């Protein structure tokens, strides 16, 4: 034992400088009421880095190491995970929880580690002048809210005044995010907004759907996560609410959410900011280098699902940002500070995605100090219960910047004042 | 041999009635305090502070609070999470409304506000007891969480309903906000824990504690010998809520920094504090500390062994945590219903006779 220990110590000391690796912590949740969403995301995130290591020998020649830590969507465990992983040289945090994000925004900024909250977290983090270490490209909740309304405008011939739209939301920071935008949009377009909160974890929604049945809104939007989604889709089916009028945010649009309701879920729509399905060249590589090699994360049964794709997309953006950072600083072994620069200079083009085996997978965009939020293009997907698959029915379209821009300015200014931050680009 | 009364002569009543009558115990207590105040701050790092010591100290305050109510006065409460939320939101409102007031006094004031709320929800205890009271306090839990989620005034109308602790200092050293040093937050919480524990210890072994315990043991008999049940029960609710409120304020301001009421102060919190005092020992200050340490350290220890040492998948380890902690609670309830404090008591009795037990 002692000898083994000594040898390992020696080996690490000798091989230390050569074996440097890029650490990508994954604050995942494979347990608890939100595990249905947490597992595929964590699998996709881990598998993409495994693919890079197996196929390309890492990022820029340096191996990537995924450090997984179970949070159970719980803030206290999130703190423990953050503290236990930050000392390992973690490059970027992706907590996949709006609650943990709020917690980590000040902490990561103080520690100088970037955080990427892709399509969740605090929306006003899009203002990089205030939130120097937080990124939420390529889209955020306010883009989502506006995208949903734009889609309704489009399908209703440009006029939704007088329509009744209900928002069913998770009664937490996450679910409350879109309310402000929807209120502004309701004033602008003249629709009637009613707010229907669902408390954590959302297994009991009889009262909420009874209210919807009584009010008969023309459309229902949903900001749900975890078990709440499945219950909502089932309840909507129970009251025979027309599914094509029911639109979920991108966190309410995975296979897990619609499969339990069976055929009744046919036609349910969800927003998205990346493509769906497994019809991309990269999946052949994943099959060859990861699955067939027996290195798939988790049970390996999630490949190609919506949330797996999203986890993979997050990993891809992180890897591309790391590559950008390596180019900027001319070193393969980057630090969190360099990673931040790489994220701020990230540029995703069609050609780049094509080369990665992900043609037309997400929108083309570039990040800058002023804009950490990307372009905020929103697409719409629809569930086909017969074929059991999601399909993109509306491409990525721009959202209402006139409404969202001032809201982001106002909210980030409030945060800057609260936290004593001098807004500006370094 | 060392742990005995013999040879330790008391010459005054004050000496005779001190907390630790045995010299060895007393010195051990001073040694622990000295270690906590003089050594730990120099060796502490972020991980130890945020993952283990801060939650331990704060949960210890909360479990002392609940122990006063449940362990000493016999009133079962499932509203701890809600009362902690009152402390946290009171702290937030006071911090933002009076930025110049020292955070130390704000935490104390949050405790007093929670005490007021606690007395209000303690009123039903005059009419109902046992399971029915537990249900009444459960109502407090749900009502308070709903209230803080529903009324935007409590979270200063922020878009997300989250509350964030602004930066505050004590003697020019930051204790809240993102730029704190581990030792500063630790010492800040330690001062509260030690002060409150000493006060609780002396309250519970004085006249007030005897009143509470008489109500716990038999309320009718207590009333006959002249204990006013109204006063005894309401003071228990007030003192208990004060402790829980201080714990909630520290939990929000110093430990987490940002709080979402439904997630952080849900029913889960009420149960975990209740488990702490059941495992630690009802009606014992030491038990509150032991229970808090047990339930804070055990999950972290299991995680370190499972994930970092054995390299198991994180989800398996998380499931094992639930199984092991659940099992331990059952085992404790069967094998030692009086908790870890009783084990400690038995050990001390044995030590007193050692090495000649007859």
In angstroms, what separates the terminal alpha carbons of chain B?
14 Å
Strand content of chain B: under 5%
**Mean pLDDT metric of chain A:** 88
- Topology order of chain A in helix (H) and strand (E) letters: HEHEHHEEHEHHEHEHEHEHHHEHEEEH
Number of helices of chain B: 15
Task: Please give the most extensive interface between any two protein chains, plus how many residues each contributes.
Answer: A-B, 45 and 36 residues
Largest sheet of chain A: 7 strands, mixed
Figure out the total of helices of chain A.
15
Structural class of chain A: alpha/beta
Shape descriptor of chain B = globular
List how many beta strands of chain A DSSP finds.
Answer: 13
- Identify the quaternary structure here: heterodimer
Question: How many domains comprise the coordinates of chain A?
Answer: 2
The strand line-up of the biggest sheet of chain A is 6-5-7-8-9-12-13
Short description:
Chain A has 15 helices and 13 strands.
Question: What structural keywords apply?
Answer:
heterodimer, A: 426 residues, alpha/beta, Rossmann fold, seven-stranded mixed β-sheet, two-stranded parallel ribbon, 44% helix, 15% strand, disordered N terminus, B: 358 residues, mainly alpha, two-stranded antiparallel sheet, 4 strands, ABC transporter permease (chain A), Leu-bd (chain A)
């Amino acid at each position: 034992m002692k000898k083994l220990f000594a040898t390992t110590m020696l080996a690490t000391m000798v091989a230390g400088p050569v074996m440097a690796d890029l650490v990508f912590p994954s604050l995942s949740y494979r347990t608890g009421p939100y595990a249905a969403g947490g597992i595929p995301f964590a699998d996709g995130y881990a598998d993409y880095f495994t693919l890079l290591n197996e196929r390309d020998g890492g990022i820029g020649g340096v191996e990537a190491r995924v450090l997984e830590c179970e949070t159970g969507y719980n803030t206290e465990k999130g703190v423990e995970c953050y503290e236990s992983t930050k000392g390992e040289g973690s490059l970027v945090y992706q907590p996949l929880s709006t609650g943990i994000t709020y917690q980590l925004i000040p902490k990561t900024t103080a520690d100088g580690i970037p955080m990427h909250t892709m399509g969740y977290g605090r929306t006003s983090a899009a203002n990089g002048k205030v939130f120097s270490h937080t990124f939420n490209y390529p889209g955020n909740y306010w883009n989502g809210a506006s995208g949903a309304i734009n889609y309704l405008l489009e399908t209703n011939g440009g006029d939704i005044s007088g329509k009744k739209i209900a928002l069913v939301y998770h009664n937490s920071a996450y679910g409350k995010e879109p309310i402000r935008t929807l209120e502004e949009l309701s004033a602008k377009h003249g629709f009637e907004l009613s707010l229907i909160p669902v408390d954590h974890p959302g297994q009991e929604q009889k009262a909420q759907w009874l209210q919807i049945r009584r009010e008969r809104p023309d459309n229902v939007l949903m900001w749900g996560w975890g078990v709440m989604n499945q219950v909502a889709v089932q309840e909507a089916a129970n009251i025979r609410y027309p599914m094509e009028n029911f639109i979920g945010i991108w966190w309410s649009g995975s296979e897990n959410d619609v499969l339990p309701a069976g055929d009744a879920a046919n036609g349910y729509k969800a927003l998205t900011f990346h493509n769906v399905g497994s019809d991309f060249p990269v999946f052949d590589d994943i099959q060859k280098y990861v699955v067939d090699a027996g290195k798939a994360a988790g049970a390996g049964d999630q490949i190609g699902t919506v949330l797996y794709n999203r986890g993979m997309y997050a990993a891809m953006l992180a890897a591309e940002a790391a590559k950008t950072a390596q180019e900027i600083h001319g070193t393969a072994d980057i630090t969190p500070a360099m990673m931040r620069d790489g994220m701020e200079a990230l540029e995703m083009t069609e050609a780049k995605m094509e080369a990665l085996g992900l043609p037309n997978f997400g929108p083309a965009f570039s990040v800058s100090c002023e804009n950490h939020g990307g372009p905020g293009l929103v697409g719409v997907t629809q569930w086909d219960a017969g074929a059991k698959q999601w399909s993109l029915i509306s491409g990525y379209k721009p959202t209402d910047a006139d409404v969202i821009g001032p809201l982001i300015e106002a909210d980030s200014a409030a945060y800057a004042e609260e936290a004593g931050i001098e807004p500006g680009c370094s | 041999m060392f742990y005995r009364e013999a040879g330790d002569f008391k010459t005054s009543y004050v000496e005779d009635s001190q907390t630790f009558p045995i010299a060895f115990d007393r010195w051990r207590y001073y040694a622990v305090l000295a270690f906590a105040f003089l050594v730990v701050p120099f060796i502490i790092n972020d991980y130890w502070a945020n993952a283990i010591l801060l939650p331990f100290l704060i949960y210890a305050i909360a479990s002392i609070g609940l122990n006063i109510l449940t362990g000493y006065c016999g009133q079962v409460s499932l509203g701890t999470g809600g009362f902690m939320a009152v402390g946290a939101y009171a702290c937030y409102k006071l911090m933002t409304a009076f930025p110049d007031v020292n955070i130390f006094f704000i935490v104390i004031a949050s405790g007093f506000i929670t005490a007021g709320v606690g007395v209000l929800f303690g009123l039903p205890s005059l009419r109902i007891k046992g399971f029915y009271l537990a249900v009444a306090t459960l109502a407090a839990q749900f009502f308070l969480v709903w209230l803080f989620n529903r009324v935007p005034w409590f979270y200063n109308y922020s878009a997300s309903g989250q509350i964030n602790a602004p930066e505050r200092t004590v003697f020019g050293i930051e204790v809240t906000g993102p730029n704190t040093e581990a030792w500063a937050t630790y010492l800040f919480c330690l001062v509260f824990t030690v002060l409150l524990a000493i006060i609780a210890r002396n309250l519970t072994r004085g006249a007030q504690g005897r009143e509470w315990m008489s109500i716990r043991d038999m309320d009718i008999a207590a009333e006959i010998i002249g204990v006013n049940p109204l006063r005894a029960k309401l003071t228990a609710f007030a003192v208990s809520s004060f402790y829980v409120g201080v714990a909630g304020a520290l939990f929000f301001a110093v430990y987490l920094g940002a709080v979402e009421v439904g997630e952080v102060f849900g029913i889960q919190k009420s149960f975990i504090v209740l488990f702490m005092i059941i495992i630690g020992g009802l009606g014992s200050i030491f038990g509150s500390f032991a229970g808090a340490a047990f339930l804070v350290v055990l999950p972290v220890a299991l995680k370190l062994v499972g994930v970092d040492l054995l390299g198991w998948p994180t989800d398996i380890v998380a499931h094992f945590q639930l199984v092991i902690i659940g099992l331990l609670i059952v085992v404790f309830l069967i094998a030692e219903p009086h908790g870890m404090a009783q084990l400690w008591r038995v050990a001390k009795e044995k030590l007193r006779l050692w090495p000649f037990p007859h």
